[in-house]
Structure formats: C-alpha cells, structure tokens
Design brief:
Aspartate Aminotransferase, domain 2, five-stranded mixed β-sheet, seven-stranded mixed β-sheet, 16 helices
Length: about 475
C-alpha cells in the first residue's frame, strides 16, 4: 500500500477525533501561552518519530486547537463549515497545482476565471473586467491601492513615487489600510481618516471637503477605500454617494467587502452595496460569509488592464505556452499560488447561486433573532442596528473585555469585544449559518448561566452597581 493511502486513513481517523471533540467539547480546553511548550511536544527532532507516537501527538494537537466550526464560536468574522467547500479544498491539496500558468494548472485556471467572470457580471462590471484570488482581504486592499497609485502616476513602477499621493478611508475601516500605505510607498501620514456617522458609515460631505483641502494644499488625491461591512459594527459605506465624489475628482474607488461583500449574492440585501458597479475595484472573502475554508479572497477590477499594468512581468522561463488570459501569474501579486478557487467552485456548483443566497440571508436572520432577544431583555444594552450581522451588546453593565476573556478562559463560549466611539461592547457575529435559532438563543443562555454562577463576575457586577449608585 502506498504511504499516502495509510496517511489518508490516519487523516480520516483524526477527522473523526475532531468531529467527536467538537460535539462533546465545543470550546477547546485552553492552554496558557506560557505553558504551551511544556504541555505539547512541538519540538523538531533529529530522528524519525514512530507512527503511533505521531498519531497520538497529532490527536493532542487537534484536541487543543481552538474549534472555529462549532456552535459556540462567535469570535471571528468566519466560522462554521461547508462540507462541499472542504471537499474542494482537499482536492486542491492533493492536486497541488500552482495557479500561475495554464501549463501547470489546466482546467483549474478555467474554474478560477469562471468564478471571477460570474462575480463581475453580478456586480455590473463590463466585458473588460477581470480579477484574481489574492491571499486575503489585506492583500486585496493592497493590490487595489497599487493599481490606484500606478494609474495616477504611470511612471511610478519605473521611477518610483514622484507625487505626494493621498489615501482616504473611514475611521472604521480595516487596519490593513495603514500597512498598505506604508508598503506602497505612499506613507501612513498621507492617509486621511474620514469621519463616520452614528452607524460607522463614512460621511461623503467630509470626504469631499478633505479632498478639496488636499487639492488646495498641492497634494494628489488618489484613492478612496470604502467598506462593505466594517470590522466592528458591520456597517456599509454609501458607495453611490462616494462614487459621485471619486468620479468628480478622478480618484480610484475600491470597495473592501472582505467581511460582508458577499451580500452581492442576496436579492434582499444587495442594496447595501448600491453603486458597486461604479467602483474601480471590489473584493469579497468567500471564507467569511460564504463559509469556505480559509483563505478564499476574490479581487475584481472593472478594467483588467490595471491588473496587467501593475503586476505583469516577463519571465520566459515561466510563460512558455498559451495566452495571457490563461497565464494568471501575469495579473497576480504572487508567482507560486495555491488553488483557492476550487473549494469555492465546488460549493457554488453544488448548491447553486440560490444556495449561496440562502447562506447570506440566513446570517441576517440569525442576527435579527439575536437583536430581538436583546431588545426583549432589560439586562442587555444594544449598540448595533438592523441589516448587520455584527450584534453588539453589553450584559448587566459588566465590563465586556472581562466578560469575554472569562468566557474564553473557562471554555464556555468564544466571543469577542469591540469598540465604537466611547463604547466598548461584546460583539456577537452570526456568520456561521450552520447555526439555527436555538443556537443563538443558547449562546445567551450559557452566557447568563455563567454570569449567575461565577463568583468573579458576580463581584465585578456588584462593583459596577455600587459605582452606578
């Protein structure tokens, strides 16, 4: 029997261990960071390890790793598990193609391009559009910024930056914008953080006022990053109104939909990105709302020439056959690139566009259930609003950072906290559509039971009430 066959048997055994653990212990026992290397043997040894010892060690690692697919994981902007997408990802690992040339990827190139073609069609991009699969949302934003820079200064790639370019984004946008301005040579000090309204949405009037100010001072306004689903509140910037401004002043408009851009699949919620067809670029992460395994990020460009202008480079040793349309390394930031498209394609192909629509719609339904429960219970304070899958609240005035940390450390549930303006709160993300109404209500049940029984939290609650008096 080939070695791979026995290793696949072991893999299936480990998967069974994981699934059983998820059922019995939805939250993994936490290993203190300073005790990790004393608890698990993670050392690399000079001699081989026998199979049984390796199997037992791998079981320990699997059991100890945070479980992101269970019904008590609400911490990140991803979660759950779509089985057909996992099938595609496992096949991609076994096939082990790199996506830079048709010669080594064959039909996998067509799979990636079909996803991009259909996505462009759905958002109203024209026949000159195209895209690529970057390594994540941060890289999508970076590639968009590089294209904006090169469009504003066509000599930049050869001679370097010659103009003091300015980048605009909201105060609630993803932290990658700051990093990317540094990477692109624009500089962090040349980012203008635009004010937001009470829902965390960019204010177009402040954006335009800032652009006018920068023009008057001799700067070169270059790029606006709008957000479809801010990290904390899940807000959507008003794309149509922002596009009026970027078109007026000739700025590149990128819509960062890493978190919630998948609303393009929903008839009911697609209006949240009205005006998306007017953007220069748009990105969404299928590993978030759509539940594919990490990572699966899609970057779309209204005119494919920008991908070629910014990322193409001749390499005779690599591009030896077929046209540029099938040699995707010429429009990618990377050379060697894993196949992130197959898992999305197997999911989309198996359940159809209507199935993806249902996945998205159910997340908003779960958020409505959570908000309704919070509104009906006087012990809770709600900080979020309708049409967001980030449900932000506080419970009985307890410090949310203390509460979330305690829930995690005692393996009760995994949920995070966030801040907006002067408020800090628990942030429940309903992105796992394997959850149902029962699971959302059960989250509140286990939270309340933990607070009721835990002496540390009770003491903290008492102190909060005494301070209020």
């Amino acid at each position: 029997m080939p070695k791979i066959n026995s290793d696949l048997v072991l893999f299936n055994e480990l998967v069974e261990v994981l699934l059983n653990e998820e059922h019995k212990h939805p939250v993994a026992d936490r290993i203190e960071a300073d005790k990790l290397y004393d608890t698990l043997d993670l050392s690399l040894n000079p001699t081989p390890i026998v199979d049984n010892k390796l199997k037992n060690l791998l079981k320990e690692v699997v059991i100890s790793t945070p479980k992101t697919a269970t019904k008590l994981f609400f911490n990140q902007l991803f979660g759950g598990r779509q089985s057909k997408a996992i099938l595609g990802d496992l096949l991609a690992v076994m096939l082990n193609n790199s996506m830079y040339t048709y010669k080594v990827a064959g039909p996998q190139i067509g799979i990636e391009q079909e996803i991009i073609r259909k996505s462009c069609e759905m958002i109203g991009y024209g026949p000159q559009s195209n895209g690529t699969f970057p390594t994540g949302g941060s890289m999508s934003n970076y590639m968009a910024l590089v294209m904006a820079r090169d469009t504003k200064d066509s000599h930049c790639r050869e001679k370097g930056m010659s103009k003091p370019m300015i980048v605009y984004t909201s105060r609630e946008s993803h932290y990658s914008n700051s990093k990317n301005a540094s990477f692109a040579g624009i500089g962090k000090s040349n980012i203008r953080y635009i004010r937001t309204d009470s829902k965390g949405q960019m204010l177009p009037n402040h954006l335009e006022a800032q652009i006018i100010k920068d023009l008057d001072e001799g700067f070169v306004p270059t790029y606006v990053n709008a957000t479809a689903g801010t990290t904390v509140l899940g807000s959507f910037d008003p794309i149509d109104k922002i596009a009026d401004i970027t078109e007026k002043y000739n700025l590149w408009l990128h819509v960062d939909g890493a978190y919630c851009g998948s609303v393009i699949f929903s008839d009911k919620f697609k209006y949240l990105v009205d005006g998306i067809e007017r953007s220069n670029s748009f990105s969404y992460n299928a590993h978030k709302m759509l539940g594919t395994p990490l990572t699966c990020s899609v970057l779309l460009v209204n005119d494919k020439k920008h991908l070629h202008n910014s990322f193409s480079n001749d390499a005779d040793y690599l591009y030896q056959t077929d046209s540029d349309d099938f040699n995707l390394g010429k429009t990618s930031f990377q050379c060697g690139r894993r196949n992130d498209a197959l898992k999305f394609w197997t999911l989309w192909k198996s359940i159809g566009t209507n199935g993806l629509k249902q996945i998205v719609d159910e997340q908003f339904e779960l958020a409505d259930i959570a908000r309704a429960y919070i509104k009906s219970n006087p012990d809770y304070t709600l900080y979020s609003f309708n049409n967001s899958i980030s449900v932000c609240f506080n419970y009985q005035g307890i410090d949310p950072m203390t509460l979330c940390t305690a829930l995690y450390e005692h393996q009760i549930t995994v949920v995070g906290f966030g801040s907006f303006n002067d408020d800090t709160f628990v942030r429940l993300v309903t992105i796992n559509t394997n959850n149902k109404e029962y699971d959302i209500l059960n989250f509140f049940k286990v939270l309340e039971a933990y607070v009721s029984k835990n002496s540390k939290i009770k003491k903290l609650k008492k102190e909060v009430l005494e301070q209020a008096e």
